[in-house]
Each structure stands twice: as structure tokens, then as C-alpha cells.
Amino acid sequence: MLEPYAEDAVFDISAVFTDIAPVRGHENLLRCWHEMRETWAGLRMDPVELLDAGDGRYIVDLRLWGKGRRSGAEVDQRFAMLYAVRPEDGKVTHAQMLPDTAAATSAVKSSATQTA
Fold it and tell me: What is the C-alpha separation between 47 and 70, in angstroms, rounded?
């Protein structure tokens, strides 16, 4: 799972899991993913649709489901991942989970406005 990510990639799921801060770099990515696996039983993220947002950015509409190991709370919900991909080597430089594809599309538009 780590192979597609650049060495200094940012993984940010804080818009959905507010208690998890964004992390940077392979070591921190692995630590974050291991902690998530310890928290959730059977955690899965199934892609539903891939949207090309332009400029090396992609939105993945996904279904996330799992069950909290301690709480027993079940999650079966749609979210979106917004990926930024470096063109020269195809590595993910930034991955951000957002509540839905509309929020991801808005984030793309907002970043385009800020850089214009």
C-alpha cells in the first residue's frame, strides 16, 4: 500500500476522522495505517468511482466500512479521497479524505482559485 506514495507524501483524513492529525512521510504513514487497523476490525475502503479533477488530481468516491474493535460501532459510509499525483513518476504526494465527492470537488476548485 505504501509503494504509490512519495517519500514525503501527506496523508490527511482529519476532515472525517477529526482525532487523527495529518501525517507526512513513509514512516508516519505506516504508523497511522497500523493504528487504524488496531482501532478498526475489517476496515475496508472500496472504490466506487474515479474522477479526473485535472492537474494531476483525482477524486475517488469510496465506500468505507468496518467495525470498531472496542466500541463495536459499525461504519458503512461513502467518503471521497482527493489525491495529488506527481506527473514525473506517478507518485501520490497528497491524499486527503473528505466527507463526499462534492467536498472534494470544492477543495479542487478552492485550490485552483488560490493558485490563480
Answer: 26
Strand partners, 11: 23, 95
pTM higher than 0.70, yes or no?
Answer: yes
DSSP string, the chain: --TTEEEEEEEE-TTTSTTS--EESHHHHHHHHHHHHHHEEEEEEEEEEEEEEETTEEEEEEEEEEEETTT--EEEEEEEEEEEE-TTT--EEEEEEESSHHHHHHHHHHHHHHH-
Please give the tally of structural domains in the chain.
1
**pLDDT score of 114:** 62
116 found inside a domain: no
Q: What is the CATH number of the domain that holds 60?
A: 3.10.450.50
Full domain range(s) for residue 79: 5-111
Q: For the segment 12-62, what is each residue's pLDDT rounded down to a tens digit?
A: 999 998 999 999 999 999 999 999 888 888 889 999 999 999 999 999 999
